[in-house]
Write a structure and sequence with these properties.
With 204 residues, the chain is α/β, with parallel strands linked by helices. The chain is 34% helix and 23% strand. Strand 5, helix 2 and strand 6 form a beta-alpha-beta unit.
Length: 204
């Protein structure tokens, strides 16, 4: 919130690619432009990998926004780095996974944001097909949708986020980023984003 990487505006919602109206916009790419915050995020992600996923051989970034943060974490931990494209490259070597790795290595995925988890789990699937042991995924932020939780459970994949929507709202209220009147509207959105109503706005 300090750098407007997260914006909350329930009375003037954003339009998502899925067609939903959303009171929140999250752009973790902005973190890269602020060295102090970038360092905090890097060390926090690295701490989770080091303490929760001991024995990881490789760090992988999910294209595209997870790539820079993944590379920073790999540098912090002194580990090799690879990244996973959303689909197989259509020319050249036609790789989906870029960088050097070996079958059987343990890998941790770094992602910037989890909504439904679809792109993250596609990366998990690509790494598993390549013979790697995906120990888990760490993200900067998650909306905490029930659909995402179910998707990760169905894929038998664990994930951890530095921050989630439930922790964001009290902090936003505490720092006067939002008002008490806006809080119920923001809480309502998370329950069912596709059907969320905005005051004086109507059905989505």
């Amino acid at each position: 919130m300090q750098i407007n990487a997260i914006i909350l505006q329930p009375n003037d919602p954003f339009k998502w690619a899925a067609g939903w109206n959303s009171p929140i916009y999250c752009d973790n790419r902005k973190i890269l432009s602020f060295p102090e915050i970038r360092t905090f995020i890097r060390t926090s992600l690295a701490s989770i990998v080091k303490n929760h996923y001991k024995g990881a051989n490789v760090i992988a970034g999910v294209a595209t926004a997870g790539i820079p943060h993944g590379a920073l974490v790999a540098e912090e931990l002194g580990l090799p780095f690879i990244y996973v494209r959303s689909k197989v490259k259509e020319h050249g070597k036609q790789n989906q996974i870029e960088g050097y790795f070996e079958e059987g290595q343990s890998v941790i995925l770094i992602e910037d944001l989890i909504s439904s988890g679809k792109s993250s789990l596609e990366a998990v699937s690509a790494l598993r097909k390549a013979g790697m042991n995906v120990k888990g995924l760490v993200s900067i932020f998650t909306y905490g949708f029930e659909k995402a939780k179910q998707n990760f459970e169905n894929a038998n994949s664990e994930y951890i986020a530095l921050c989630d929507y439930d922790n964001l709202l009290p902090q936003a209220l505490k720092t006067n980023y939002i008002t008490e009147a806006e809080l119920p509207l923001l809480q309502e959105w998370r329950k069912d984003p596709s059907l969320w109503k905005k005051r004086n706005y109507g059905n989505i």
